[in-house]
Amino acid sequence: MKCPRCDSExxxxxxxxxxxxxxxxxxxxxxxxxxxxxxxxVVIEKFKLxxxxxxxxxxxxxxxxxxI
Amino acid sequence: xxKTYKDLREFLATLEEEGQLxxxxxxVNPEPDxxxxxxxxxxxxxxxxxxxxxxxxxxxQVVTNVHGSWQNHALMMGMPKDTSTKAQFEELxxxxxxxxxxxxxxxxxxxxxxxxxxxxxxxxFEVLPLYRINEQDGGFFISKASVVSGDPEFPDDFNKQNVGxxxxxxxxxxxxxxxxxxxxxxxxxxxxxxxxNERLPIAIALGNTPLVTFMAxxxxxxxQNEYEFVGALQDGVPTDIVKxxxxxxxxxxxxxxxxxxxxxxxxxxxxxxPFGEFPGSYSGARLQCEVQITHxxxxxxxxxxxxxxxxxxxxxxxxMALNTSVPLYKQIKESFPEVVAVNAMYSHGIGVIISTKCxxxxxxxxxxxxxxxxxxxxxxxxxxIIVDEYVDPFNLEQVMWALTTRVQPSKDxxxxxxxxxxxxxxxxxPAGMTTKMIIDATTPVPPEPNPRTVELLKDPVDTEKYxxxxxxxxxxxxxx
Lengths: 68, 480
Description:
CATH architecture of the largest domain in chain B: Roll
Number of strands of chain B: 24
Number of helices of chain B: 15
Radius of gyration of chain B: 23 Å
CATH class of the largest domain in chain B: Mainly Beta
Strand content of chain A: 15-25%
Low-confidence stretches of chain A: none
Helix content of chain A: under 10%
CATH topology of the largest domain in chain B: Pnp Oxidase, Chain A
Shape of chain A: extended
Mean pLDDT of chain B: 96
Oligomer: heterodimer
Mean pLDDT of chain A: 97
Helix content of chain B: 25-40%
CATH superfamily of the largest domain in chain B: Electron Transport, Fmn-binding Protein, Chain A
Structural class of chain B: alpha+beta
Distance between the termini of chain B: 39 Å
Number of strands of chain A: 3
């Protein structure tokens, strides 16, 4: 199963519904998008991610230097 | 003595009695129903809280829009639900001065939030009916948590313990993403921990007594404890807190529905977002901190309280309205006692209106610059309007009158370029840098020249009397 956001195949089931067997939540281990099986995820073009984009995303907050 | 609430449940009971809570008894889907109801509730006049009793695939209940109207806001303060916004502002100011009211520390056995414990096979979904709030959110978000953390340098300093609201994305059954912007108190603590490559213990309290949630999203000083403000805002009644189980230097609200305990993983940033944010637009994906959850305590049959945020106004705009206005007012008033009121209700204080008496020429601009040098105003406030002391800053018709008749743009509008901005404001560029605008809508006082002085219109004598007469006549017609 492909990730609807970054097209990675590194997706897995995060959790199954605690009551009944009525849905699962999937997660992408590449971009950490998650969605429920009862949804039809449509990620708009603006929010699609590639490895190149992920590598240049802003870092919040910046990681400080280690105290020596 | 104002009515106070020990926990969320007591407040929900009052909201229901007052017609300010509705129950959806039929089973609903997590998406899009809960987000849609949160959006809808803030569009309905006197928007009530909405409690979902059954959510497909989940055990628990969800409540949203708990703070989402001026009626609910007044009831939170134990005031009549028809209390005006200005009167609520004034009452908050009165109670604010009771700070500090130390909280009441209860034992573990006395704390309802400790009724149940999960410390193995952590699964957030067993306890919380998590859901996507807005369609393009990158996952399921917890939008109304009170996050408790300590200062690693002074772990036992209760005053430096922080209770704040930060957006939280569910990344896994036992892992969360959290947004700690550099300007926020938790980022100060995180930096100290990360410099030593140490974990920062945190406790995330969900479903709290409404003034705890209110204070968690209030910008107060780094060394001012939020729980001591809750006692003040409860008109002197201390709030109950209890030690966290895994980090005993942290205290959590004793009546919380759910407490998630764990730590921020040091020096790690992972993709988080997008998330529909309070300025009414999505903030995109960023690399942000992650929290490992190791321990959960919860009340029996916990209620998950979460809020909708979207194009203003929504619940978050009610929650962050007066709790932004009051601390800014207090800070400015300390320097300039002539200041009468501060309305910082627009997007968490990005837009602010201040009414003040002007002691000498240029005073209004000075008051605006004081706002822009407060800890919250410096990054957040961008559009600042100063009006005369007799203009009610909460009455936008009066403010527009002042703008249209008191402002000569060539001399009364000042731009301050390359200043700090709120990164989530999409007009800031680069994110976090902006231009401030001060609009002086006050009447010039010496030595500023005022070549065309005017005589202001006053209400005719007996206007008040006629207001009463007209109201009575209207009522008589309605009763017919």
